[in-house]
């Protein structure tokens, strides 16, 4: 609440600045310039509202409007900055080359219209990309010394759904329907499921309890679970029948081992599935400090194949030391929409996709939902079906 006033003031000032820079040019291009003025006013008034939603009753339609405005204004601001760089270069070129300033003025006017059109187009496309059900992305992971019994073992990964003001029960139902059609051996949910309390969002998460796989659904916490009350959510997810891995592991067998006589036979198709709490969890609860080593403690040493679920990719440096073959992560959203994909590497070692770190693979999901603005552009959401295969 203390930050609300200064943030609101900053938001309003930025809108005023963009209005001063863009409206004169747009007014010379079209008589529809008042529409831009109205959009800027609506955006300035509604963008701060989602910040209040957890402490005050803000109607959902206003939260929707504020979040859509946030996405539109973000693109408008970025393209406006590009325009300012272009105009500075244009002024230098015109001045040094002694060209007529008339051409510079026409480019100033035209570029204002281009900025508004691009920002609006990206926002519309991004909206539909975000609201559609995530497509299935299939990835083969070649694992050295993979037991024959694990060849073809499939993992459906969901990540960063962010159930909240704009992602509700029907959105989750569509995801569950898509995953259940895959017939995966297990589901891995790598954090950031929710942006709100159990009381508010419990019924919207409930369809995840209907995920159908041979070995079940395994979950690790993300940073947003801690913002929303991790302890209550851990209890709720367990109540729904999911296995929440808190720096711990389970051993799965891809094949029925009934009647096996030796440890070698029993472990021929065994897989250690470990999970850690979020990388930043200790800031919220010291007992939840993320620890890939503890997660694998007392795991059968003869079970070579070890999978780690860790919300943030930056857990990988410790995970590779602990002896995992594969880490599944999320958190980054692949940047979600331009230009934020360029900022992810400032905090995380990997942005999206399959990567190699020494002897360990790491797969980073771009996320199955979205956070904040309902907008994805250049970073489509995904349901990932990962298949373990023998390394040739």
UniProtKB/TrEMBL annotation:
Keywords: Hydrolase, Membrane, Metal-binding, Transmembrane, Transmembrane helix. It comes from the Bacteria. The keyword Transmembrane helix applies. The chain crosses the membrane at residues 35-53, 65-89, 109-128. The keyword Cell membrane does not apply. Gene3D superfamilies: 3.60.21.10. Residues 154-334 form the Calcineurin-like phosphoesterase domain. CDD domains: MPP_YkuE_C. This is Metallophosphoesterase.
């Amino acid at each position: 609440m203390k930050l609300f006033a200064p943030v609101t003031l900053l938001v309003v000032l930025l809108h005023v600045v963009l209005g001063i820079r863009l409206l004169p040019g747009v007014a010379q291009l079209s008589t529809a310039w008042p529409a831009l003025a109205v959009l800027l006013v609506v955006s300035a008034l509604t963008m701060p509202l989602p910040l209040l939603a957890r402490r005050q009753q803000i109607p959902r339609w206003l939260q929707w409007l504020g979040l859509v405005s946030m996405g539109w204004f973000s693109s408008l601001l970025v393209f406006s900055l590009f325009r300012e760089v272009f105009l500075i270069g244009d002024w230098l070129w015109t001045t040094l080359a002694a060209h007529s300033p008339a051409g510079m003025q026409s480019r100033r006017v035209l570029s204002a219209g281009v900025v508004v059109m691009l920002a609006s187009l990206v926002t519309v496309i991004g909206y539909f990309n975000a609201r559609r059900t995530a497509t299935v992305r299939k990835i083969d992971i070649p694992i050295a010394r993979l037991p024959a019994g694990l060849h073809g073992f499939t993992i459906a990964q969901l990540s960063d759904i962010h159930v909240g003001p704009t992602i509700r029960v029907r959105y989750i139902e569509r995801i569950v329907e898509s995953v259940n059609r895959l017939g995966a051996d297990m589901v891995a949910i790598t954090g950031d499921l929710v942006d709100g309390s159990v009381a508010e969002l419990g019924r919207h998460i409930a369809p995840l309890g209907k995920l159908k796989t041979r070995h079940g659904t395994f979950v690790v916490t993300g940073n947003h679970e801690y913002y929303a009350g991790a302890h209550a959510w851990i209890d709720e997810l367990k109540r729904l029948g999911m296995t929440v891995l808190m720096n711990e592991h389970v051993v799965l067998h891809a094949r029925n081992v009934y009647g096996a006589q030796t440890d070698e036979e029993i472990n021929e198709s065994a897989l250690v599935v470990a999970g850690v709490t979020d990388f930043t969890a200790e800031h919220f609860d010291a007992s939840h400090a993320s620890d890939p080593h503890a997660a694998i403690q007392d795991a059968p040493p003869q079970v070579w194949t070890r999978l780690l679920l860790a919300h943030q990719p930056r857990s990988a440096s410790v995970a590779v030391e602990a002896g995992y073959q594969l880490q599944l992560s999320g958190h980054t959203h692949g940047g979600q929409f331009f230009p934020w994909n360029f900022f992810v590497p400032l905090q995380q070692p990997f942005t999206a996709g399959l990567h190699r770190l020494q002897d360990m693979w790491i797969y980073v999901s771009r996320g199955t939902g979205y956070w904040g603005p309902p907008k994805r552009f250049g970073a489509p959401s995904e349901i990932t079906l990962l298949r373990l295969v023998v390394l040739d």
